[in-house]
TrEMBL record:
It comes from Cetraspora pellucida. It comes from the Eukaryota. Keywords: Membrane, Transmembrane, Transmembrane helix. This is 19107_t:CDS:1. The chain crosses the membrane at residues 15-32, 52-69, 75-99, 111-136, 142-162.
Length: 163
């Protein structure tokens, strides 16, 4: 275990933390009042901030935790694969945007590639991530917070399959 880890620390989760973490992105968008103008700086920075926050929650934080604790190789491997897939999607979108500027979506030559990237970016967080965490959580001893997360991930998976 790393020397920076305090073994005696116990986290106090409360309703305030859950509400803040859930409602912050929503209120951030509402408070900034995104406009439909193409040259609005908000239209550039909000998607960028959204992407950064999404990547932090999806793979950066689990990767940092897995490197810190060292005994969670499943999470480390999953986070690295997730990171590589998201970086590939971002790089391919940037390269394609540079190669084919100012064309409509239906004019694109690589429509199949970008359709698969869009499907991946939608289905991966909705199906693969909950399945992974259901497997990880179900292999541990259950604590009340683990049970809450397990129920939430199962609900998310069921809703994704039914939708």
């Amino acid at each position: 275990m790393a020397s920076i880890i305090d073994e005696t620390y116990s986290s106090k989760h409360d309703l305030y933390d859950a509400l803040l973490n859930t409602l912050f992105p929503i209120t951030f968008v509402i408070l900034l009042n995104v406009k439909n103008e193409e040259k609005s700086i908000k239209n550039f920075f909000l998607p960028l901030l959204d992407d950064i926050l999404y990547n932090m929650v999806t793979w950066a934080i689990p990767l940092i935790v897995s490197f810190t604790y060292g005994d969670t190789s499943d999470i480390m491997i999953f986070s690295i694969i997730n990171m590589l897939l998201h970086v590939f999607c971002a790089v391919s979108a940037i390269v394609y945007a540079i190669i084919t500027p100012r064309k409509k979506l239906h004019d694109r030559d690589f429509y199949g590639l970008y359709f698969s990237i869009v499907v991946f970016l939608i289905l991966f967080p909705v199906i693969i991530i909950p399945v992974f965490w259901i497997i990880i959580i179900s292999r541990q001893t259950f604590e009340p917070i683990d049970l809450v997360f397990l129920v939430l991930f199962v609900i998310l998976l069921v809703v994704a399959v039914l939708a």
